[in-house]
């Protein structure tokens, strides 16, 4: 199996699902509350594992009652957690997520132990491919990318200023529309691939500003988009590592992300490879 290491965040998500999302200053009541393991790093790790990769996660939780719950599905999914440490002075990261009936969401993150996973706590990056996001300190992400020896995927979410050499080292950069606008033409000045996602409208894959592929996801009934973007990142990385052509890799990633949006929660929604392939076959 393809080996992928994810250096990233680990959270517990508190998800309130309501008919609509609140406008500024508005209170929306009648919501249903659920708790799900989350965090972009943990989501991408479990997504890659369910899609068929051999996966290790490097990150940090707090010394509190939320840590075991945040790691539960990763443990059950056979993700290697030997790189996950504990900060006795911090709380486990928490995300507060509001979800509307159509799947649109709003997210506020209290990073906790993710924020205290500073560069000196990152001692090694195992051989193989690497996926990073920006829910850890940027300096830690930059160190991980500099230490990597293989393929590097950099998911620039949430958008933040990042060292130019870190961008240049990435073999694959993944952003959504908002993040793409934040980085502007700097994305297309890099030597690696750039994937831009447009939600239900699909995604594009570019190199040096030139379009290599476009893909639209199969039509599904969206329930909760939480975790869909993380599934896309994991699926696209794995497909490219497997040598799939750009158009096929992008179509696989769009289908995986769409399927994740049909279920509530982040990690609880992540599809298996067989499910993704079945959806693609049904959509033909």
Question: How does this model look, in words?
Answer:
This protein has helices at residues 40-50, 67-76, 138-147, 164-169, 177-183, 228-241, 246-260, 273-283, and strands at residues 3-7, 11-17, 32-38, 54-62, 80-87, 93-99, 105-110, 129-132, 152-155, 172-176, 193-197, 203-207, 210-215. It has 284 residues and is of the alpha/beta class. It has one domain (3-10, 40-89, 116-283): UDP-N-acetylmuramoyl-L-alanine:D-glutamate ligase (3-Layer(aba) Sandwich). Strands 5-4-1-8-9-10-11-12-13 form a 9-stranded mixed beta sheet, with helices on both faces. A 4-stranded mixed beta sheet has the order 3-2-6-7. It is globular. Belongs to the carbohydrate kinase PfkB family. Ribokinase subfamily. Catalyzes the phosphorylation of ribose at O-5 in a reaction requiring ATP and magnesium. The resulting D-ribose-5-phosphate can then be used either for sythesis of nucleotides, histidine, and tryptophan, or as a component of the pentose phosphate pathway. Its cofactor is Mg(2+). Residues 1-273 form the Carbohydrate kinase PfkB domain.
């Amino acid at each position: 199996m393809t080996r992928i290491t994810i250096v990233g965040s680990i959270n517990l998500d508190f998800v309130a699902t309501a008919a609509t999302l609140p406008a500024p200053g508005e209170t929306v009541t009648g919501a249903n509350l659920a708790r799900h393991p989350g965090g972009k790093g943990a989501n991408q790790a479990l997504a890659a594992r369910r899609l068929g990769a051999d996966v290790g996660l490097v990150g940090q939780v707090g010394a509190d009652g939320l840590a075991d719950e945040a790691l539960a599905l990763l443990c059950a999914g056979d993700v290697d957690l030997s790189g996950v440490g504990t900060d006795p002075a911090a709380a486990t990261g928490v995300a507060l997520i509001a979800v509307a009936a159509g799947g649109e969401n709003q997210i506020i993150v209290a990073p906790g132990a993710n924020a205290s996973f500073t560069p000196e706590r990152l001692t090694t990056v195992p051989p193989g491919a690497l996926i990073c996001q920006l829910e850890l300190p940027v300096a830690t992400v930059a160190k991980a990318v500099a230490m990597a020896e293989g393929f590097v995927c950099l998911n620039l979410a949430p958008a933040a200023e990042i060292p130019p050499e870190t961008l240049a080292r990435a073999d694959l950069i993944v952003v959504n529309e908002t993040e793409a606008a934040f980085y502007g033409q700097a994305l297309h000045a890099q030597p690696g691939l750039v994937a831009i996602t447009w939600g239900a409208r699909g995604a594009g894959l570019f190199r040096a500003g030139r379009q290599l592929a476009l893909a639209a996801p199969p039509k599904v009934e969206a329930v909760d988009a939480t975790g869909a973007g993380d599934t896309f990142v994991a699926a696209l990385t794995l497909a490219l590592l497997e040598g799939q052509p750009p158009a096929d890799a992008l179509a696989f990633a769009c289908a995986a992300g769409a399927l994740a949006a049909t279920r509530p929660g982040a990690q609880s929604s992540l599809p298996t490879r067989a499910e993704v392939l079945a959806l693609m076959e049904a959509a033909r």
